[in-house]
Amino acid sequence: MSDNGGKGKAGSSPIIRKIKKNQHKHHGGSWKIAFADFVTAMMAFFLLMWLIASLNKAQKDGIAEYFKQPMKITFFGGKNVGNQQINLKGGGPNIKDTNGQVSTTDKASTQSKQAQDIQVIQSDKEQTQKLEELKSQINLSIQQDPSLSGLKNRLLMRIVSNGLRIQLVDNKDQSMFDVGSDKLNPNMDPMFAQIAKLLSTVPNAIIIEGHTDAHPYHNPDELEYTNWELSTQRANAARRALIKAGLNPDRVKRVSGFGSTMLLNLKDPYAPENRRISIIVMKSSPNENLILKGDHIMINKSNPSNQIQSNTSNSNTINTGDTTNKSTH
């Protein structure tokens, strides 16, 4: 038994086990694309940081002003940094130079541009000073005139980027116009007369704007008459009042209506102070062609019949006679 068992054990074939190792497949290249995008984004970020670090305070303030109120800068102007030359640190053949380099061919034009910028800044300061004096004269004349004592709280004045903004506003007790009307109330005549007298002492161009509150204009007989037309008609009525008081008609370069799109009191769109007339005394004479082609409803100066024309259609004119319109607002 033992021999048989021994033979059987010796005669069995050996079992060989082979461990197969799975070879990893070759990785794709998608990670390279993601990494390249990451590197590009980082390069753009540090380039942006470099450019921002190269700006001075005035240029940064100009950019910040635009992003705060882009529509305001578009319509009324502001600090313009678009035409200024910025010398970036580094650049040029000498990579160790961190003060910025300008090619010799551009030095003359750069110096000329800098001289012009200095003149513009000096001129702007002088005009701002003159407008500050005009503002003080208006305040003083209203305080000294007893007939205007009840209107002084309705007069707002502020120096803005393009000139002196004089605003005549309504309050809960007094209004410049009747509801839905473009006929100026007689109690405003002394105020317009005094303003026209003082505006005649300076040669600056003048822009007049009309604004309404957010109450919609309802008139079933004239469905096309809205706050846009009403604000424009009221601005034109203010123009006529100033001219009647002695202001040179050629001084008025634009009459615009903004409806309720530019509220003075943002918290209460229906507040009476949103109904106002703005008179802007410009710092310098604006480009008349640009004004007449602007995106506002304005005076058609080629028409002697005192009509208002919208630039959306050359044939769409609105009669600006002193008519009283009915409204529910």
Automatic annotation (TrEMBL):
GO terms for cellular component: plasma membrane. It holds the Pfam family MotB_plug. The chain crosses the membrane at residues 33-53. The keyword Transmembrane applies. Keywords: Cell membrane, Cell projection, Cilium, Flagellum, Membrane, Transmembrane, Transmembrane helix. Residues 86-111, 301-329 are annotated as: Disordered. Residues 164-285 form the OmpA-like domain. The keyword Transcription does not apply. Belongs to the MotB family. This is Chemotaxis protein MotB. The lineage of its organism: Bacteria, Pseudomonadati, Pseudomonadota, Gammaproteobacteria, Legionellales. The gene is motB_1.
